[in-house]
Structure formats: C-alpha cells, structure tokens
Amino acid sequence: MNMNIVKRTGETVPFDVERIHRVVGWAVNDIKGVTASDIEINAKLQMKEGITTREIHNVLIDSAVNLISLQSPNYQYVASRLLSYQLRKDVWGGKNPPKLVDFVNKNVHENDVYDEDILMLYTDKEINKLDEYVDHSRDNNFTYAGIRQLCDKYLIQDRSETKIYETPQFAYMIIAMVCFGQYEGPARISYVKKAYDYFSKFKINLPTPLMAGVRSKVRQYASCCLIDVDDTLPSIFSSSTAAGYATGSRYGIGLNIGRIRPINSPIRNGEVVHTGVIPFLKLMESTVKSCHQNGIRGGSATVNFPFWHYEAEDMLVLKNNSGTDDNRVRKLDYCIQFSELFYKRFLKNEDITLFSPHEAKELYDAFGHENFDELYEQYERKTSLKFKKTIKARKLMSLFIKERVETGRIYFMNIDHCNQRSSWDDDIKMTNLCVEVLHPTKPLQHPDDKNAEIGICILSAINVLEIQSDAEMEKVCDIIVRILDQLIDYQDYFLPAAENFTKNRRSLGIGITNFAAYLAKQGVKYTDDEAPNVADELMEKVQYYLLSSSCDLSSEKGRCPKFNKTKYSQGWLPIDNYKKEIDEFVTRKNSMDWEGLRARIKEFGLRHSTVSAIMPCESSSVIQCSTNGIEPIRSYITYKKSKARTLPVIVPNYASYKNKYTLAYEMEDNTGLIKIVGALQKWVDMSISANMYYNYAHYENGALPDSKVIKEILLAYKLGWRTGYYNNTDDGDKQSFNEEEQKDNIEDGCESGACAL
C-alpha cells in the first residue's frame, strides 16, 4: 500500500503494515484464547493519506476492547497492553523508560506537577537504587478497564490538554517513596520496596485521594470529612465554607444538621422566625456541587439527622424526584438516625414524638446513649414545648422505606450501636458520605475555630484475594498502618478544626475489598451457613494485625494525644461488647491472642483512635480488577462509565470462579449478607458501607413488600449493624433504582458519587 502516515513527532513516513503486525503480535503474545488476526480483522482500518499513528493505534485498542466478552475475557489484557504501549510512547517518548531520577526531576522542575520535596527527601543514589527495583512488566497485570481508569482518573496529568505525565509503575514507586519519605535509616528503602510491591501487585487498594494525590503538589490524602453544624448562622455559614474547601480538596462530605431548629422557630424572642432546615440544605447542595474536585471526583455529601427531629418527615422526601424545587434538595444524600426506642415503638405500633433540637438540647446530647429513653419520655410529658408533635412510628418507617426503595439513597444509622459498641468514648453524632466512618465531632463556630473538630479519615483497603498467608496479611497490615500514619503528618489541612481532629485523634479507616472473589475462591456462597464464619475469621485476623501494628507504632512514636478519649484506653477490645446474637450463627472460636494484645495496649497504648472501616471501593476496584468492598457481584461482566467512555469489567478469575460467585439479584433475600456484615462488624471499630439487594421477580406480582425491607432492617439492627448504605433493586427491566448513576457511573469515585475509593 503506497501511502504516508504521520508519526507522533509530526514526521511523515511511508505506511508499513508489518509494523501493525508486530505491535499486535506483541500484544497477544503468551495470552490464551486471543489471536492477532481477530484484532486486525475487527479493526477494519480505513487507511487514508496522512492518518496518524495515534489514530491507527486507537483503532487497534478499540478493536481489542470490542472483542472482550465472557467467551473471550482475555482480550481485556490485549487491549491493556496496547493502551500501555501508547501510554509509554506518550510519557517516555519511546519504548524504554527513562531513569527514575531524571523522570522525577522532569516532573518536579519542567512539568511542575510533582511535590518538590521528593527530591529533598531522597538522594540521587537512593532514587537510583529504587529505580532498579521498578518492574514495568507488572503493567501486564492490568485489565483494559484498570489501566484506562488509571489514565482517565489517577495518573498525574494536565486535564485541559489531556497530557499524562507518568506511567503506572513509576507512579506506584513514587507514591511509596512519599509515604516513607520521613523515615530514617536503612529500613526506609526496605519499607519503600515493600509498599511498592503491595501497590503494584494489587495487595493494597489505594483510594482516590492517595492514588491521585500522593506525589502531587496537592497534599491532601484523606477521603472523608465530617462537618458538624450548630444551630447558629455563623456555624451554618462557616460549615458551608468548610464544605467548599473540603470538596475542592477531594473529600467526600458528611454533614450533621441534627441541631438546626425547625421552620417557624422564634429567633431573638420572636422578632423573626426561622426558615427551617431545607433552605440551608440548598446552600450546602450548591456548595458541594460547585467544585468538581479537579476533574477527579465529583462533590457530594450525606446529611445526617435524628428520627425525632421536628422536620424529619420533610427531610426524608427531599431526594424524591416528585414535588417542586422549593421542597426538594435532590443532589444530597440523606441518613436518618434510629435507636432502640424507635424500633420498639415501631414493633408495638406506638407513637413517637418529634421535637425541635433547640428546645431539647439535653435530649440531643443524650441521643445514642443509655439515658436517652428515659429523657425522651420526660420530654414527651413536657407541656411547655412549642415545637412538639406526635406521629405513629410506623408512619415514619413507612415513609422512610418508600423513599429508600424509590431512591435507594436514604441511608440509616443505628446511633446507639455507634456510640455503645464502637471504640470511641466521645459522642458520635454523625457519619460520613458512604456511612462507614464514625467520628466524634464538634460544631464549627467560625472558619478559624481551633476548638471545633472536623472529622477527617484517611482510608485504604486490603485486597484479600491477593493475600497468600496469615504472615503476609500481618506484613500488609503493618505497611498500610505505617503509610496512613505518615500521611496524617505529611498532608495539609484546609481548616484548623480539621488539623485539630486529625493530629489529636489520628483515626485510620482500613477495610477489605474483593470479598466476593475471596468467598468464590473458597467455594462459599453469601447464602451459605459457612459464610459468616469465613467473614468472622478473616476480619478477626485483619483487626488484630491492625491493632497490633498501631500498638507497635505507639511504642515507637508515642500514642495519639487523645488516646484517653477511646474505649481502648480503658482496656476495651472488639471481643468485649459485640452483639451476642452473632454467636448463634458464627460457631468458630477466636484464633488470635486478644488477651496478650490487651496487655500490650495497656502498656504502650495505640497510635490511632480507630484502625478499621469497610468502604465501597467502587472506583479503585476497577484498577485492580477486584470486586467492590464486601459486596456480591451484580453480574459477571459490567459496563462502567468512566469519563467519556464505557469500561467492560469482568469479575476476577471468571473462568475458574464463574459458578462459585454469588449474584446479588439471585439471592432470595438479604439474610446471608446481613449475617456476614454482622460478623464483620463484630471486629470493625467504626462501620461498614453495606448495601441490600432486592429482585422484584422474587415477589408476588413483581412488587417488593415494605414488610420485607422492614424485616431485614430490623434483623440488621439485631445483629449490630451500625449503618446501612444503598438499597438496590432490580425490577427486571432496568437494574436498580438508579443503576446508571449508582453502579455504572464511577467517574465520581464511588457508587454515591464521591467516596474516597
């Protein structure tokens, strides 16, 4: 074919078809079930004079992507290699990598995208030593969806010009270098190498702020931000400002508005009356949606409020698409807080009373604690309260269930479990965006308020499918604890209240991911009686190793300043006050030396107030080709939207595990999943992003009964769930209430739109 093409350099050269054969042949080499000819034929290249090599390469990538199916899953690795080849040419200028020291210098000085402290933390000799350890062949472990997700979202780049500045293995190594940059002595390089191995071999799951932020000039690595709002204008507007700063820094936002007085409440002795909660929620909505987090994550927030708030009925329907703009705030998510008192009255078909938090400040302070019930009944008997109304508990529950089923995004928080069974000794009044983080908070009174506490949590997760032994699990836990501990001190803070909380509490949220594949590997279904035992055994080891590592760090560097504000300081451990109903179906015996650990903590303390939380891992799971968090899979192949493209994602080890996976919508009910979460929650010192799934085909006339959803929420409470996340439904036509938004659209970082992972 006598035709010219244009290279990346702009040079015009004769077209050489053999070059295409060589590239495609390299891409399919040693991969089973794929052929070069299929890719070339499927490409249907329409050659024309002046076509660019990039255009040709993109066609080949698309051809391989279009061949990905359950029958031919390995084309995802062919497409990945082709994309990797293109990425290396773009970043390196050729096939061979530059020296790591030159690469870092270029991105610090010329491109101005790396943290300049990297070159101050390491000598050229050290960087050269680490360069020898980088294994670029590990790029071959990425699926197409994984490396495309990296390119679109996580690798450092100029998004205005779509210019990427790094390749995956360099990124992993430099992240590891930053994480241990403050360490001294010969052990430092060893720690960097271990971290690099665990990142690049997919043993540690890095959330969006870490994967996108560590090494960049933006030193913000936490995933979640919990902002408590007081019942004053300065606090409300300061909290809105804080939410704006936090959103721009890649946080997912939790907002507690439970203290704000209801509509028509008197202000200044009745000179004016209050506009109520909803106008201020519209303010918060505008704030968090005004910043798209550098194109990496979308701004999003979850609003927390108690079941007994005077405006609870109105707040429950804010997300529903019916109604007018005046009575809807649709772009926020909502979490209603229940307690044992509510559930008891629901079961007895009794009334509940709604109050103004302004008139019932003592009641708000007691919410979540053992004295709440008695105080609540006292307030019910008060005749002097101006804002008090009585409704049936079942009416409020019915409204909650209706909105939860229709929107999927009305969450619940069992606040007594959060306070009485977590590791915190201080008050828990709220949770975060994805409801897995529990932090004590103090309302912000002004932007520079140093007495306030904005809860900040750095998250990460362990890819449990990739851990080969208990010894390796212990090592991975130690590395991840050390990494997150370092980043607490290395990162910047958008307000003093955030720094105040984080450096004094030093809270970590380390979870597990790829649990569905982990169960499948063992041939255990979510619905099997053995599943809770498997979950219990796994999480016992994880929590033990995390606490042990925190204790070791405490002996090395000192305990967290507010360690005395945790139950751990009083000798408490997760084995002490979990819901004993768990023992009815978890029959195994504990295997770790908890009394020995108790003695060590008594002597050395802990470096961190908390160590564990289980998050969704929606976005980051794509990189590692892992299943999300602890969730069952919805199907063997999904097509997830990321940026301007759709990514085909096949479950891990499909060929080996395809008959062993549990499909979410094939489960007759959520009983097995609820028991699994209960077993996990027994050990986790914060909470879990746990979903429920309903297939309309399982119910008479294709209608999901409210009673079914209620029964399972009650079971979740009985088994110690602290929070509940999505309500997912499949009506047979379009999976899920908002399947396109929730499951497939991972641009924003997680199912809800902004979770850190």
Topology:
Elements: E1 4-6, E2 12-14, H1 17-28, H2 36-43, E3 51-52, H3 53-66, H4 75-92, H5 100-110, H6 117-121, H7 124-131, H8 144-154, E4 157-158, E5 163-164, H9 168-179, H10 187-200, E6 204-205, H11 208-213, E7 224-228, H12 233-248, E8 252-256, E9 266-267, E10 272-273, H13 277-289, E11 301-306, H14 312-316, E12 333-338, H15 340-347, E13 351-355, H16 361-366, H17 372-381, E14 388-392, H18 393-407, E15 410-414, H19 415-420, E16 455-463, H20 470-490, H21 496-505, E17 508-513, H22 515-521, H23 531-557, H24 594-604, H25 620-624, E18 637-642, E19 645-650, H26 654-657, H27 671-681, E20 692-695, H28 706-718, E21 723-724, E22 727-730, H29 739-744
Parallel strand pairs: 1-3, 7-8, 8-11, 11-12, 12-15, 16-17, 20-22
Antiparallel strand pairs: 1-2, 4-5, 6-16, 7-16, 9-10, 13-14, 15-21, 18-19
Helix pairs in contact: 1-4, 2-3, 3-4, 4-8, 9-10, 10-20, 12-13, 20-23, 23-24, 23-27
Describe the fold and architecture.
By secondary structure, the protein is of the alpha/beta class. It folds into four domains: 1-89, no CATH class; 98-199, no CATH class; 227-291 and 298-415, no CATH class; 455-744, Alpha-Beta Barrel (Anaerobic Ribonucleotide-triphosphate Reductase Large Chain). Strands 6, 7, 8, 11, 12, 15, 16, 17 and 21 form a nine-stranded mixed β-sheet that branches. A three-stranded mixed β-sheet has the order 2-1-3. Strands 4-5 form a two-stranded antiparallel ribbon. Strand 9 (266-267) and strand 10 form a beta hairpin. Helix 1 (17-28) crosses helix 4 (75-92), helix 9 (168-179) packs across helix 10 (187-200) and helix 12 runs parallel beside helix 13. It is globular, with a radius of gyration of 26 Å. It starts with a strand and ends in a 13-residue tail after the last helix.
